[in-house]
């Protein structure tokens, strides 16, 4: 967003050279045609960068003193920040509506796409918890470097915990039990999704499903409060059945 455009800069430059001047003199100095010049000067007046004085019935314009520019710029920063906060609050109020079965669905393909999918689970997670059902060995086989070097560190740094259900014979899952505290993860074991090559993550009002295809992994995020609540209920039932 520009604070001032090129024509406004030309007018300010001219006024700083002239001190103060009527429109006719500004037009000669800037070579801006009168109709465009009036519009430009009005813009500078509204921004507080130019003031208008009348001398014998003629309007003269003078620039903001250079010594006042620091205060002027601080006011612009404060104004923009205030407007940004107000806009965010207004947009949030527009989204406060009763849950529906209408879903916002996003698809992700390839390694980079799936990495972006996983980033959403720590970036957009106000509750700071993920409920995961995972073919753990397959996940590591396809995304080991990403998980260890990027996903786990980012998730832990943002304080997002995981309750994870994995197959009983998942070797990497059993190995990671020793890192449960470090990875903010509580694990239980049950033979569901064994060798299916997928993971389901439930967080907030979202469910993500990833297919760990070695050549072209893919995934989907479904944002729907009702569906997420249903999947969470399924997860909690399985959690009670699973073994520590």
Descriptive overview:
- The protein is α+β, with helices and mostly antiparallel strands and 244 residues long.
- It has 2 domains: 6-66, Arc Repressor Mutant, subunit A; 104-241, Endonuclease, Chain A (2-Layer Sandwich), CATH 3.30.870.10.
- 49% of the residues lie in helices and 22% in strands.
- The chain is built from 8 helices and 9 strands.
- The chain has helices at 6-18, 23-30, 34-46, 69-94, 110-123, 136-157, 171-176, 225-241, and strands spanning 50-55, 58-63, 104-109, 129-134, 161-166, 185-189, 198-203, 206-211, 218-223.
- The strands form 2 sheets. It has a 7-stranded mixed β-sheet with strand order 3-9-8-7-4-5-6, sandwiched between helices. The chain has a two-stranded antiparallel ribbon with strand order 1-2.
- Helix 1 crosses helix 3 and helix 5 (110-123) packs across helix 6 (136-157).
- The radius of gyration is 30 Å and the shape is rod-shaped.
- The mean pLDDT is 86.
Spatial arrangement of strands, main beta sheet: 3-9-8-7-4-5-6
Q: What amount of the residues lies in strands?
A: 15-25%
What's the overall geometry? rod-shaped
- At CATH level 2, the architecture of the largest domain is 2-Layer Sandwich
Biggest beta-sheet profile: 7 strands, mixed
How many strands?
Answer: 9
The low-confidence runs, each spanning 5 or more residues with pLDDT under 50, are none
CATH topology of the largest domain: Endonuclease, Chain A
CATH class type of the largest domain: Alpha Beta
Work out the helix count.
8
Number of domains: 2
The helix/strand class is alpha+beta
